[in-house]
Amino acid sequence: MKQLNVGILGLGTVGGGTYTVLKRNASEITRRTGVAINVVQVADRNLANAKALATDADVTDDAFAVVNNPAVDVVVELIGGYTLSRELVLKAIANKKHVVTANKALIALHGNEIFAAAKANNVIVAFEAAVAGGIPIIKALREGLGANRVEWVAGIINGTTNFILTEMREKGLNFADVLGEAQRLGYAEADPTFDVEGIDAAHKLTIMSAIAFGMPMKFEQAYTEGITKLEQVDIKYAEELGYRVKLLGITKRTDNGVELRVHPTLIPEKRLVANVNGAMNAVVVKGDAVGPTLYYGAGAGAEPTASAVVADLMDVARLIDATSAQRVPYLAFQPEQVQDLAILPIDEVQSAYYLRLRASDKPGVLADVTKILGDRSISIDAMLQKEPDENETEADIVILTHITVEKNMNAAIAAIEALEAITTKVVRIRMEELAK
Amino acid sequence: MKQLNVGILGLGTVGGGTYTVLKRNASEITRRTGVAINVVQVADRNLANAKALATDADVTDDAFAVVNNPAVDVVVELIGGYTLSRELVLKAIANKKHVVTANKALIALHGNEIFAAAKANNVIVAFEAAVAGGIPIIKALREGLGANRVEWVAGIINGTTNFILTEMREKGLNFADVLGEAQRLGYAEADPTFDVEGIDAAHKLTIMSAIAFGMPMKFEQAYTEGITKLEQVDIKYAEELGYRVKLLGITKRTDNGVELRVHPTLIPEKRLVANVNGAMNAVVVKGDAVGPTLYYGAGAGAEPTASAVVADLMDVARLIDATSAQRVPYLAFQPEQVQDLAILPIDEVQSAYYLRLRASDKPGVLADVTKILGDRSISIDAMLQKEPDENETEADIVILTHITVEKNMNAAIAAIEALEAITTKVVRIRMEELAK
């Protein structure tokens, strides 16, 4: 088995998530890449915490020991900031190690220098996790949409501010009140400046603009306006006019130059991106061939961010067998790892259901129907009983059920259709929450 | 300059779009990959049409001439069906040519055989365009979300049926009436069976399930139920209960087997995917680390599909320099092709605006304000004039403007604020349509 040896700098939220995901999904990751990705060393100032979590790795409080460790192939930088992290990343590159980072400030401010060093040393510097957390937007921009001349990119790329704006709209609260709530819930930091003033979003936007248009990082020229002065009344008036207010990062190619701006923005409520609520992120990319496409998901958090960090590590691992046409296997997993999984017959599928019955308007019908469902342990989530139309003696009954197995529902429907008061076939449509 | 020589089979809608995008964006594509992608030969039964479009390529009506052409490195199969296309693809593979295809039926039905042949010949078979058109969902599943154990995938992956369902909901029409309209508009084919019975969606779902879980194509075991029996009344009742009805393809890993099913489905209206309307597609992927992520865009059409075909060709082109850490360059474009584009100062940015003014309730104020805007060629899109609250003599005026340049708006706002009747600062929020 081919091996990729990883050193992690910083075992905080994202570092811990990365360690956990690599360990939990180790077999799935190896099934995909054909490579075992091992964490061989971890550096954290809190040695006790790090040792408790990273039980399979060497643990140190000296980050330079990791970047200088000859056994480490790739350094994962998750300590944040842009002074020490810059030094560590440049040292790792000089030592011919690949680098994966989630550090948007580092890339937005020092990306030009870091990429030049990486090119000179022929190492990968990957940073999917730096923008929009677990959403693979960097890969979409660099590869998936590579055929396009990108015209503009616009995104909700800061979860804290989107949470605040959502609460302001839904609860009619002012910025200051929601900020306090967000801090209590852990959605906002004690010093929220980077988020609420749009600086964090400008870091991420800077990275997307560079990749979309093929230009250097120009963070210092980004226009940045936060949400601290946004008043409740304007969110209300915008809604009356059919708009939602979002903190957008927008970068657009124009004949006169590239727009690079973060500010509160009215968006028509019928746009999908206007309906991205809570702490979620979404990025809209407009390409000349594909038109607008949208990418949505969690923009922060331990495991969503780890999802992007580990995907980058897998790209590094794919360098080992790069010349194979199966660098990325046809079916995502190595051919010998494809499993002949059984398909569940539809009778065995579990689902919730929408049922519509047409029943004579007689007493006892509903009792009979609910008994049939109850006898088969099918519980009712909601019901809608319609009055018969004028000159009619039958009416619609609509029932939403909780989850049951399809064959159970088939039996219930057969029993319901056998009732004398039920005059037509039962209409059945499956229901999915798509939440978890 | 490195070269990749392409032969295209079928110069219809998608083939024509592919030729056009490759030609129009040739310099952008080469800036990204460092490779010139040339269409050297094209096969189409309609020679005259093909010659009129593909002016730079050799044109033939013999598809086998292309797959046997020693000058062709990669064959793009866009003729559809799964008899002749299977034969052509297998012949191309036997001739050690890479294959790019948009053919979902071919992959869903014969993918297992094709991938085995491709592996034996160490060639790429890429099929991003086979699922959800221009949305890079195959890349997201295979690479971007590779760190995850995928739990389920659910998608609106047929534009025809989503268009029909959207019209049924918005206009209160029945299936048959909307189908006729869809056929007139070109959203549905003369024989719409493949779309409206869910077979097309089942092809795409089969492909996603194989990639999500690492298993062979099992199209013949997919459960497929279309929308032809769906009644208007059920869409209405679902809406009363807070749900939308969508034709979903759902594949889910369970302890007992893999679910693989296409059917009309109620989804809570607050889910983003429930708000995907018209002919657009969207896929939700639930990974154990990242949680739910969503991918949205055009699922069909000449250039959206071409966007995916050409992205696949770029992946093939990247095999030429596969061992470089810059296989995909840091900034998406080759380092020497990164351009130092100018950033537009915010004063020069063009935007529409939301303005809120607080004005004394005197006659003539609105005339003064609209004159100031008109004098600067700023036209008004909408206006909201509020009554003064009880015991107040001032009221809010909200104006939405059309697009103007920011410095022009700054001047207008200064003039408005100088009016005696305007008692506070003007609140200004930028507006974006994000439509084109």
Automatic annotation (TrEMBL), chains A, B:
<dbReference type="InterPro" id="IPR005106">
    <property type="entry name" value="Asp/hSer_DH_NAD-bd"/>
</dbReference>
<feature type="binding site">
    <location>
        <position position="189"/>
    </location>
    <ligand>
        <name>L-homoserine</name>
    </ligand>
</feature>
<dbReference type="GO" id="GO:0004412">
    <property type="term" value="F:homoserine dehydrogenase activity"/>
</dbReference>
<dbReference type="GO" id="GO:0009088">
    <property type="term" value="P:threonine biosynthetic process"/>
</dbReference>
<keyword id="KW-0028">Amino-acid biosynthesis</keyword>
<keyword id="KW-0560">Oxidoreductase</keyword>
<comment type="pathway">
    <text>Amino-acid biosynthesis; L-methionine biosynthesis via de novo pathway; L-homoserine from L-aspartate: step 3/3.</text>
</comment>
<feature type="domain" description="ACT">
    <location>
        <begin position="354"/>
        <end position="431"/>
    </location>
</feature>
<dbReference type="InterPro" id="IPR016204">
    <property type="entry name" value="HDH"/>
</dbReference>
<keyword id="KW-0791">Threonine biosynthesis</keyword>
<feature type="active site" description="Proton donor">
    <location>
        <position position="204"/>
    </location>
</feature>
<dbReference type="InterPro" id="IPR019811">
    <property type="entry name" value="HDH_CS"/>
</dbReference>
<dbReference type="GO" id="GO:0050661">
    <property type="term" value="F:NADP binding"/>
</dbReference>
<keyword id="KW-0521">NADP</keyword>
<dbReference type="GO" id="GO:0009086">
    <property type="term" value="P:methionine biosynthetic process"/>
</dbReference>
<keyword id="KW-0486">Methionine biosynthesis</keyword>
<feature type="binding site">
    <location>
        <begin position="9"/>
        <end position="16"/>
    </location>
    <ligand>
        <name>NADP(+)</name>
    </ligand>
</feature>
<dbReference type="Pfam" id="PF03447">
    <property type="entry name" value="NAD_binding_3"/>
</dbReference>
<dbReference type="InterPro" id="IPR002912">
    <property type="entry name" value="ACT_dom"/>
</dbReference>
<dbReference type="Pfam" id="PF00742">
    <property type="entry name" value="Homoserine_dh"/>
</dbReference>
<feature type="binding site">
    <location>
        <position position="104"/>
    </location>
    <ligand>
        <name>NADPH</name>
    </ligand>
</feature>
<dbReference type="InterPro" id="IPR045865">
    <property type="entry name" value="ACT-like_dom_sf"/>
</dbReference>
<dbReference type="Pfam" id="PF01842">
    <property type="entry name" value="ACT"/>
</dbReference>
<comment type="similarity">
    <text>Belongs to the homoserine dehydrogenase family.</text>
</comment>
<dbReference type="InterPro" id="IPR036291">
    <property type="entry name" value="NAD(P)-bd_dom_sf"/>
</dbReference>
<protein>
    <recommendedName>
        <fullName>Homoserine dehydrogenase</fullName>
        <ecNumber>1.1.1.3</ecNumber>
    </recommendedName>
</protein>
<comment type="pathway">
    <text>Amino-acid biosynthesis; L-threonine biosynthesis; L-threonine from L-aspartate: step 3/5.</text>
</comment>
<dbReference type="InterPro" id="IPR001342">
    <property type="entry name" value="HDH_cat"/>
</dbReference>
